[in-house]
Amino acid sequence: MNKSPLDLGYQTTVFNKDSDITTEMKYYQNKCIHQVFAEQVEKTSDAVAVVFENQQLTYRELNAKANQLGHHLQAMGVGSEVLVGLCVERSIEVIIGILGILKAGGAYVPLDPTYP
């Protein structure tokens, strides 16, 4: 059975602005970001997933917080085709919010907290 290019995904090059290192990464278009994240949690649950200023969370901790938010949002009626506004200053909570909304089945709408 032949796979289409969309099934195989595509590669992109990530350039690190602080060094000359480039990384080739493969992204699959048939999976949502929260599904790819869940796979990464299974592979490296105790590795650091996100760092902001003096805070950091492992994949396991980030997944637990996102799941908790996702379940809460589902209980509030968030699901497929429901837009959820996310108005948060730049922080770890942004990542938790995005993942939680996606895990609930909704779509996040970023709102700028500095915009009146």
What does this 3D model show about the protein?
The protein has helices spanning 5-8, 33-43, 59-75, 92-104; strands at 10-15, 22-27, 48-52, 55-58, 83-86, 107-110. With 116 residues, it is of the alpha+beta class. It has a single domain (5-110), classed as Rossmann fold. It has a two-stranded antiparallel sheet with strand order 1-2. Strand 3 and strand 4 (55-58) form a beta hairpin. It is globular, with a radius of gyration of 16 Å. The model is unreliable at 1-13 (pLDDT under 50).
TL;DR?
The chain is of the alpha+beta class and 116 residues long. It has helices at 5-8, 33-43, 59-75, 92-104; strands at 10-15, 22-27, 48-52, 55-58, 83-86, 107-110. The chain has one domain (5-110): Rossmann fold (3-Layer(aba) Sandwich), CATH 3.40.50.980.
Number of domains: 1
CATH topology: Rossmann fold
Give the helix/strand class.
Answer: alpha+beta
Arrangement of strands in the largest sheet: 1-2
Shape descriptor: globular
Strand content bin: 25-35%
| CATH architecture tag | 3-Layer(aba) Sandwich
* Order of H and E elements: HEEHEEHEHE
pLDDT averaged over residues: 81
| Cα separation of the termini | 54 Å
E-strand count: 6
Instruction: Give the biggest beta sheet.
Output: 2 strands, antiparallel
Q: Which percent range fits the helix content?
A: 25-40%
Topology:
Blueprint: H1 5-8, E1 10-15, E2 22-27, H2 33-43, E3 48-52, E4 55-58, H3 59-75, E5 83-86, H4 92-104, E6 107-110
Parallel strand pairs: 5-6
Antiparallel strand pairs: 1-2, 3-4
